[in-house]
Design goal:
The complex is a heterodimer of chains A (112) and B (111). By secondary structure, chain A is an all-beta fold. Chain A contains no helices and eleven strands. Classes of the chains: A mainly beta (112), B mainly beta (111).
């Protein structure tokens, strides 16, 4: 059973376009993280959101945690080829819980 | 700036062979983890260690054993490799806060 479902699974868009990736669950998470993974490397943490409704911005990337803390979204404005990669959301069920649960991933390709 | 170091980077095993994947972190983190990554499945937790001297099962522990040798090192052992264990294995550590630091992975093929 996959607790975190990401959509879309694959996305290929032109440079300069905007996009949104979704991470959904029926479970409540105390915090949610987004990672980006490039080929041959491990995931790298982009952001952590902990409060329902929280919005965080990282340059052209905007992350939002749902009010009920069951879902999250990643919006990229004016996508660039350097944004290409596998984006993973991951959630912690409770503070102090050691088990980070990962989503299924969204493979993003930005075409120059 | 080593972070989390995994060895080896690539390995091919025959069914039934054993091997140990090594992981070391130099960030003085208490918690360490082993994940496997398969296409379309995201990362799944195999085992974790919340502190030196403790280990616990994750989502997919069958066929694996772990050892938290000291605070720096957390190894993953396959006693009798099976083709179903073909995967990319990632070690990670976590310190203050919730962010994980991952190694660059071990690509294992069992034939």
């Amino acid at each position: 059973t996959q607790l975190l479902e990401q959509s879309p699974q694959f996305l290929s868009i032109q440079e300069g376009e905007n996009l949104t990736v979704y991470c959904n669950s029926s479970s409540v998470f105390s915090s949610l993280q987004w990672y980006r993974q490039e080929p041959g490397e491990g995931p790298v943490l982009l952001v952590t959101v902990v409060t329902g409704g929280e919005v965080k911005k990282l340059k052209r990337l905007t992350f939002q945690f749902g009010d009920a803390r069951k879902d999250s979204s990643l919006h990229i404005t004016a996508a660039q080829p350097g944004d290409t990669g596998l984006y993973l959301c991951a959630g912690l069920k409770a503070r102090g819980n050691e088990k980070l649960t990962f989503g299924t991933g969204t493979r993003l390709t930005i075409i120059p | 700036n080593a972070g989390v170091t995994q060895t080896p980077k690539f390995q091919v095993l025959k069914t039934g062979q054993s091997m140990t994947l090594q992981c070391a972190q130099d960030m003085n983190h208490n918690s360490m983890y082993w994940y496997r990554q398969d296409p379309g499945m995201g990362l799944r937790l195999i085992y974790y260690s919340a502190s030196e001297g403790t280990t616990d099962k994750g989502e997919v522990p069958n066929g694996y054993n772990v050892s938290r040798l000291n605070k720096r090192e957390f190894s993953l052992r396959l006693e009798s490799a099976a083709p179903s264990q073909t995967s990319v294995y990632f070690c990670a550590s976590r310190g203050q806060g919730n962010g994980y630091t991952f190694g660059s992975g071990t690509r294992l093929t069992v034939v």
